[in-house]
Amino acid sequence: MQNWPGCAAARPSATPSSRTPAISRPVPIKKKRPPWARPSRGSKNTCKHFERAAKPRKGTVKMYKAIIADDEETVRRGLVTHFNWGKHGVEVAGVFDDGVPALDFVRRNEVDIIVTDVRMSHMDGITLAKNVLESYPGVKIIFISGYADVGYLRDALKMEAVDYILKSIDIDELDAVITKVVAMLDQRSSQQLVLEDMARKLEQSMPLLRQRRLCDLLQNNDESEEDILQSIEFLGIPLNSQTHYAVLVLRLQPKSKWLTMGSMPEKDRITFSMALEELFARVLAEYGVNVVFKGRLSEYIAILDVEHDEYEEDLLSVAEHLQARIRSEMKLDTMIGISEPFRGLRSVCSAYANACEAISRCYLIGKDIPISIKKYEDDGSGRTLREQAEKEICDSILNGDTAAVHLALERAVAGIRALPGEDEQQNFMLFLLLLPTRLMTNMRTENMGPYASHLKLTASFLQCNGLGEQEAMLASVYEDLTLHLQKMSTPHTNTVIKRVREIIAAQYMEQLSVTSLAEAVYLTPTYLCVLFKQATGKTINEYITQERLNKAKEFLAQTNIHLYDVCYKVGYLSPSYFSRLFKKYTGQTPGEYRENIMLNARPAAEKEAEQL
């Protein structure tokens, strides 16, 4: 057994009252204590912080901080000067003669190991350990004591102490205990480093994980609403199951896409796509929209909150501004589709399909925003090749891009040639022949161009010899239809706007809404908002307000109608609201307007007499 000076020469007996006095042993070479190890003069309750840095052992994860608490000065000095802490990568950060200053130090500094006597005058080691572990459970406690009492051992076990060493202290025993403690700390530090590295990688991967999760919502799957909600909460995606949302899909117009990106190297194409995605997110962020992500190539998606009233016009404003900014900053023409409102995260998939249909099924006016025609519904039964052909061909026809129509047809026929059977090929070709009829819902027969007679068109198609002649006929028919629909767009729109104006003129006194007007002309509310503003320069609500106020002026000119009756006659339920609105648009209250009308209507002679 190897002991150091100042420690007892033999272990004490198990009797608690027989504490062995300290007896010094001779030392071959007496070393003078350095200044940092000398106790403070005039202070019995000594506390000394040590600045000497111990060299860490080879392979250590970090330098650990240890403190010593013992009421015997010889034990404190011996633990500091005669044990090689640096070999274990441990630095003695403080030495204390009681638990009170030791606890205060732990609360103000990072400590990994506490070597403490069990019995001390003011705060014993058991109490010190209890207070430390309540706030810092990772600290390792080593008890030293001159007593082998069962009660102390039991209390030490409760504190989950690493070990319980009896005085006099055996250096080899202490070395083994410190080795065990450091191994435990090294393992914890290594695990912590792994966890921190995983957390850092997870944080770096969050944008990609969010995009993948949002893209997954666009696909049909068997996930429950609860599973989806749990995953998006973990990823920090601000969506929930109760709010009403709409999906906005932006795509490059085929002609713009091919002219801009068609000849780009892959690296430049990726960079260009990232710049467009950044602009898409930046513009939508101006409207408070922060759920934006990239879908397929040249497709950008946002999920917008539509809980507020008159959301249709707000969506129109967002879409118009987005399209204008992309055209201005990147010289690109885009198509935007917006879904109908939905609630529930499982409905994102169907809303996305609705927004895509908004792009594919609408009538375009020049380069403006396409929104879906409500009466059309796809059966969704086609395979991948069929769906791709349908999308590309319909998009190209609606865009008025004959070159893109030919390219889409060529790709579709190339896929058809790869089909195994002739019957299957012919069925697919007939599908392509009749595909454009889906774009002419609610259109009169005489306005369908080459599709005015389906029977005649089909008969001519069946007389073609082979896929080559059929492809040539389809190319010709598609091109004729593309040019025909371009000519038909404006008359069709004018008819819709005229009908909406007629309804407003006849029903201005009723509770009109964008939704009811859209139902009357077989369009979605959003699409109707687009068409109406493009044609009139006003939103539908602005136009309704204008019509009502014009009628209100007519009624106010009739003195036999009470002011509050005018309010109800023009469709408002609150006289105070009507009065504020009237003043906002005319600069006068309804009463002031009537007085001015009556004053201007008086004969000139009466006015002159009144002035005299």
Automatic annotation (TrEMBL):
| Low complexity: compositionally biased ranges | 8-22
The segments labelled Disordered in the record are 1-46
**SMART domains for this protein:** HTH_ARAC, REC
Residues carrying 4-aspartylphosphate: 117
Domain Response regulatory, by residue range, is 65-182
Provide the GO biological process annotations.
phosphorelay signal transduction system
Q: Which keywords describe this protein according to UniProt?
A: DNA-binding, Phosphoprotein, Transcription, Transcription regulation
- PROSITE patterns attached here? HTH_ARAC_FAMILY_1 (PS00041), HTH_ARAC_FAMILY_2 (PS01124), RESPONSE_REGULATORY (PS50110)
**What CDD domains does the record point to?**
REC_YesN-like
Q: Which SUPFAM superfamilies match?
A: CheY-like, Homeodomain-like
Q: Name one Pfam family in it.
A: Response_reg
- The keyword Phosphoprotein belongs to this UniProt entry's keyword annotation: yes
Q: Which residues form the HTH araC/xylS-type domain?
A: 498-596
- Is this entry keyworded DNA-binding? yes
Enumerate the GO terms in the molecular function aspect: DNA-binding transcription factor activity; sequence-specific DNA binding
Function, as annotated, reads: May play the central regulatory role in sporulation. It may be an element of the effector pathway responsible for the activation of sporulation genes in response to nutritional stress. Spo0A may act in concert with spo0H (a sigma factor) to control the expression of some genes that are critical to the sporulation process.
Its recorded name reads Stage 0 sporulation protein A homolog
UniProt source species? Ruthenibacterium lactatiformans
Query: What high-level taxonomic lineage is stated for the organism?
Result: Bacteria, Bacillati, Bacillota, Clostridia, Eubacteriales
